[in-house]
Amino acid sequence: MHIKKRVLLLAAITLSACATKQPLPQRAIVEPKLVHQAIETEQALDAREGVAIEAGAEWFKVVPGRIPVIITAPHATRPLRNGNRRFADGGGTAALALAVAELTGAHVIYTTHEGPSDPNYYDDNDFKRELARLIGEVRPRYVLDIHGSHAYRPFDLDLGTMGGRSLLGQEALLHELIASLRAEGLDNLSYNYFGAAKSETITKFASGLGVPAVQLEANTNYLSPSAGSVQAQRFSQLVQALTRYIQRG
Predict the structure, then answer these.
(1) Which among 38, 50, 113, 145 could disulfide-bond with 95, CB atoms 3.0 to 4.6 Å apart, if both were Cys?
(2) Where are the alpha helices (DSSP H) in 139-226?
(3) Residues whose CB is less than 8 angstroms from the CB of residue 107 and which lie 6 or more positions away in sequence, other chains included
């Protein structure tokens, strides 16, 4: 055989062999039923805008888990900041937390009604006291704090770590999270646009108690499964990314 042809043949065989060694995709783990449940949660929480809570009723809920990870959604309903109602990040933030928890066994704490405070702005409220109790009981590996960002933002997610300080030296947690997001097609990431360093954030609070924490600001297009098929798929992508991140340990 001519030397040039032989070289080309060997190259083709080598490329073919390399191609066969590429890892196969993982099997999808998010079912439509889970997204339908998330839509119901999103719509139920969004419907509580402007609805007064009964005196003495709880304005947040804790869903116990079975693994040492805590997910929070403190702005699922409108918080009270400086005497005024601030806009909510949407019921989709709680729907995301609950969907991931169902697949992983993580603990969740989220707002269910318009309460008397802002858990991501003040520390002196029952939400933060319950979070502190939960941290002491669970001793979590980390806290993921879910928020929603405007649809016009150029990113899929912004990752807030107080400039890295809230990781408490465990930078691998961030890099593993980024890898999990990108593996599910969420490539358009931002870092510390919302750094979670201002005011008394959940991320600052948790890291102050010795637990690494990340504030996840997800574009609302990933938090609105009720808005349509495209948004529902994006929601399921994000659920799957966070689920696989948590499951990797």
Answers:
(1) 38
(2) 171-183, 202-208
(3) 62, 63, 64, 65, 69, 70, 71, 101, 134, 138, 140
Sequence-separated (6 or more) residues with CB below 8 Å from residue 94: 41, 42, 45, 73, 76, 108, 110, 111, 112, 146
165, burial (CB in 10 Å: exposed 0-12, middle 13-18, buried 19+): middle
Q: How far apart are CA 59 and CA 70, in angstroms?
A: 18
CATH 3.40.630.100 given to domain 30-247:
yes
Can you give the pLDDT at residue 19?
Answer: 57
Q: How far apart are CA 72 and CA 64, in angstroms?
A: 12
What would the pLDDT profile of 118-173 be if each residue is shown by its tens digit? 999 999 999 999 999 999 999 999 999 999 999 999 999 999 999 999 999 999 99
Q: Give the pLDDT confidence score for residue 10 in this predicted structure.
A: 57
Neighbours of 86 (CB within 10 A): 14
Tell me the per-residue pLDDT of 164-199, one tens digit each, with 9 for 90 and over: 999 999 999 999 999 999 999 999 999 999 999 999
pLDDT tens digits along 192-214: 999 999 999 999 999 999 999 99
Our CA angle for 180, 185, 189, nearest 5°, is: 75
Q: What is the pTM of this model?
A: 0.91
Q: How many helices (H) and strands (E) does the chain have?
A: 7, 9
Could you tell me which of 197, 235, 238 has the C-alpha nearest to residue 215? 197
Q: What is the four-CA torsion angle of 92, 84, 61, 127, rounded to 10 degrees?
A: 120
Would you give the distance in Å from CA 118 to the centre of its chain? 19
Instruction: Give dist(CA 44, CA 39) in Å, integer.
Output: 8
